[in-house]
Amino acid sequence: MSDGRRRSISLVEAGLLAVVGAGVLLDARGYPAPLIEGVPGPAFFPGLVAALLIACAGVLALRGTRAPQGAPESVRGVLRLLGATLWIAGFLLVLPLIGHLAALPPLVLGLMWLSGERSQWILMAVSLAFGGFVHLLFVVALGVPLP
Amino acid sequence: MTAFAEGLATALQPANLTALLGGSLLGVFAGAVPGLSSTVGLALVLPVTFALEPTPALLMMISIYMAAEYGGSITAIAIGVPGSSPALATTFDGYAMTRRGEAGRAFGISLFASMSGGILGTLLLVVALGPLSRAAIAFGPPEYFGLGVFGLAIVANLVGKDPLKGIISALIGLVAFLVGLDVLTGAPRLTFGSTTLMDGLGLVPMLIGFFAIAEALDALTGRRPRVDGTMGMRAALPRFKELFRLWRPILRGSAIGGVIGAIPGAGATIASIVAWNEERRLSRTPERFGTGEPAGIAAPEAANNACVGAAMIPLLALGIPGSASAAVLLGGLTVQGVAPGPLLMTEQASLVYALYAGFIVAVVFMLAVGRLGIPLWVRVVSLRPQILMPLVVAISLIGAFVLRGNLADAWFALFFGLVGFLMLRRGYPLAPAVLGLILGPMVETNYRRALALSSGSHTVFLESPISLVLIGLAVISFAAPALRGRLRLGNPDADR
């Protein structure tokens, strides 16, 4: 990875952290005043955490490419992550509508396919068996209601 | 002694024995599969424990913790890839023995040393927990504030290669703790008008997201090694005479594991590496270490299992989780309504004694599962990540939902999974964030309470000797990495 790209990523990271810190500070402005004079109220600790986060973001931005870097992402890895995230989000959206027995096998099947499994027999057998296993474990054996 | 006998009787009840056995099986599996670990194993089993009584639930969790420390050595010895990071030192001599056809002997030594270390670590827990808990009964808000600050200073030992990223991780955990209602005034903070967020983000969704979903996403995007489970297991096991000849390395390894394991933030990986290094240093033939020396397996394996009992000392006596696995265990205790801390020994003594006995039984099960199941485990760990990891994601989401029957928790787990994945990829350790979420309430609430009691005077923190000592320890703990950096030492546990 080039120094320029590393620096850009570090700046994006620092920017995100600073935005989170600023968001906390802004929200804390609306908290009630302390109940006892001289004793910190509900805004004190969030303000402190936010200030530290913004300060750390500043150091991160200044440090730039000198920081230890994580491994670079491949395009394939990013696409897999996006696909997996959307598939999981879809599962959580349909779970209350169609129930766990119908929703779990497609979740597992999709994630296995995304991670590179191509055997149709394995895809079908594992996803169906897992749906049945979860039902038996939680609903039948432990008596925990699932959607 | 009567209390211990009652604890043993409790641990030997059928439901508890089943939990301990199940924990051993899952623990060895979690420890042996590269990419999983005792922490992931514990996070995965959290949803199952919700439906159990407190005693079997907690026994299952300690059994997983104990067995996973041994499980890591299976792949370390079989293929030279540590199943989990505490088994790293075992690869040095374990895999060397496998390559010269002595895998069975290496497995036997690892198992015997793990068992011995597990028992000695438990004895340390039994001896130290009572006195530490009695001392902690005198704690008020200033002392709890000092304890919380000390706990947060542990971050300094968990930061890995980059201290700044460790501190940012802890701050992210503190921001997560702020979401919800302020404990002292009931004021909503960072809820943005959502009633769902008023309950807070919750420890369990964060644990499941960080330690199960983030790991699975990491593997789904294709960076985990696959284990080749073709290693032959017909090699002869060691004789008892040989095992007992290793009593010195086992005792030294256990002592190192007991001391390092009890220090929050130090961890089993550093203990096992220190134990291996000490054994080599003390040996008359140090040049044989790394080439298949039995003491090079015995010492680190005894050390990492001794860490399990020792890590429970600060967790149970003070409510301070010293490692990621201990943090998940704290989640399990909280879910079961068990509040670790100074009053645990007086209010839930029977549970504590059942845990003591449970540790011993867990060691016995670990021995049985380890001895009988080695050929099976080597085959099981060869399960492909593209099959295993989707199952981890699915069971994690269901587990997050099961806690409160609330789908929002599954969304939170997914959110934390993504945040955890990005943090891992960018080199941020996850453990400090979890510590921030756990210790944030202790620090903030007791800081404000102490100031309310002293009419706003900060001298209240200096008037209490315990608070003063704890804050001093926090300063030392925070400065330790800088000193360690000068000595060119690192903490391998800090990677997660």
Say how many strands of chain A there are: 0
Shape by Cα distribution of chain B: globular
Low-confidence stretches of chain A: none
Number of domains of chain A: 2
Q: Please give the order of strands in the largest beta sheet of chain B.
A: 1-2
Strand content of chain A: under 5%
Q: How many structural units, i.e. domains of chain B?
A: 1
- Classify the helix fraction of chain A into a percent range: over 70%
Largest protein interface? A-B, 71 and 62 residues
SSE string of chain A: HHHHH
Oligomer: heterodimer
What's the helix count of chain B? 23
Q: Report the total helices of chain A.
A: 5
Tell me roughly what share of residues is in helical segments of chain B.
over 70%
Can you write the helix and strand succession of chain B as a string? Answer: HHHHHHHHHEEHHHHHHHHHHHHHH
Tell me the strand percentage band of chain B.
under 5%
